[in-house]
Structures are given as structure tokens and as C-alpha cells.
Amino acid sequence: MNPRVAGIIGGVIGVVATGAAIGAAVRSKRRDVVEDMYADEPFGALDVQTKEDMQVLVRQIWLDTGTTVLMVTHDVEEAVFLGQRVVVLASDPGRVAADISVDLPRDRDLGVKRTPGFLALRATIEDLVRAQHRKGAAAS
């Protein structure tokens, strides 16, 4: 199979698997159906509007069910919007550069992305990510 096609199929499978977990949680509104949700870049292949809709849905599931959600993302805005904490990995493999608490309202909507607190936190995390990237590049 063409590697590009395989990558696209892999991305679609990831979105479908995330959708299945979200669907189970939405239908039941019970924590025991989806106790923990782990996702690696689940919304990376989506258009902006669908991605935001999914982000709002994941937050709502978390509020309704208390499901633990661990998401890996390179999108700082997404991490700040979805998270209670944002963990920035160090340029040294397996090390944590920062573990930052997200001090925003629990019940937030997309409008929070325009607030000074959100923008400041996003800028702080972006600066940390850039610093780790430069550190890694200098070590190479």
C-alpha cells in the first residue's frame, strides 16, 4: 500500500476510534462506560470548525461523566482549551519541562479562547515549547 494512503487511513482510524469512545460516553452519560480516554492527535485531520465542535464535545463529556481524558497534541490552543493541566515535554526524551495548571473556568466555551487569561497562558506555553525546541536543536 502507498505510505501516503496508509497514513491517511491510519488518521481516519484514529478519528473513528475517538468518535466511538465519545459516542459511548455521550449515549450513556455514565463514567463506567468510558472510564478513561487516551488520544494522540485525535483532531489533527479535521477542519477547524469540526475540530472545535469535537473539542466542545470532549469538554462536555468530561463535565458530564468525569471521564479521565489524556490527550497528546502539538496544538497549544487545543491543550489549553481542553486541559486542566498542560504538560510540556522536555527536549530530553521522557522528561517533563513543565506541568502547568490551567486556571480557567471548568465550564468553558469557545469564547474563552479570546480572553486575556487564555491568551496569556497560551503564550507562556508556546514560549516553553519554543525554548525546548531550541534547546534540542542546540544539543544536536
Topology, element by element:
Blueprint: H1 3-28, E1 36-40, H2 48-65, E2 68-72, H3 76-82, E3 85-89, E4 96-101, H4 116-139
Parallel strand pairs: 1-2
Antiparallel strand pairs: 3-4
- Which topology does CATH recognise? Rossmann fold
Q: What percent of residues adopt helix (DSSP H or I)? A: 40-55%
Q: How much β-strand is present in the residues? A: 15-25%
Radius of gyration: 16 Å
Number of strands: 4
CATH-scheme architecture: 3-Layer(aba) Sandwich
Helix-strand sequence: HEHEHEEH
Number of domains: 1
Main sheet summary: 2 strands, parallel
- CATH class assignment: Alpha Beta
> What is the 3D shape?
globular
Which structural category fits the helices and strands? alpha+beta
Oligomer: single chain
Question: What is the strand arrangement across the widest sheet?
Answer: 1-2
InterPro entries: ABC_transporter_ATP-bind, P-loop_NTPase
Transmembrane segments: 6-26
Keywords: Membrane, Transmembrane, Transmembrane helix, Transport
